[in-house]
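Example record used in the benchmark description.
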Amino acid sequence: MNTLDIIKNRTSYRGTFKNEPVPREDLIKIMEAGLAAPSGCNKQTTSLIAVDDPALLDKLFKVIEKETINTAKAMICVLTQRVIAYRDRSFYVQDYAAAIENLLLATVALGYETCWYEGYITDVDAIGRKMADVLNVPADYELVCFLPIGVALEPITYRDKKPFAERAWFNGFGGFTEFSK
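Model output (structure tokens):
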């Protein structure tokens, strides 16, 4: 698939994974893609931890307590630091969001599936911090997302997207969407 096909065909996979390992060289490629994302003022606030050790994955699955995730053969955890970049502002959210999108696309490009899990682990239950503790992450880093990675066992399903004309325009909000103008 070319890049545009990968972007259009990526979906959030929440199903069971096949019992097939994810080679470390593929995890490295996925992480390299994530770290190649742009970052505000080049502060590079995003860091990544790939987990492929079955015993460590099992410890993380016990913290996460979510069905089907425990069938993933690998996981990438996304860490961030709230570094001031410009005029007392930090772009850490934009930084890690860009990195995650690259991770998602690279995962699909290599023939795997994944899902962006963030809200579930960053709410009042502090699951992200508990995961970070399992991984010996220092307190000045936040574990804000994880992506279980593996080969899909179940069929891939796609949700409908709103029509282009409802979300994109030319020359102003709600303007023309005709491509010939």
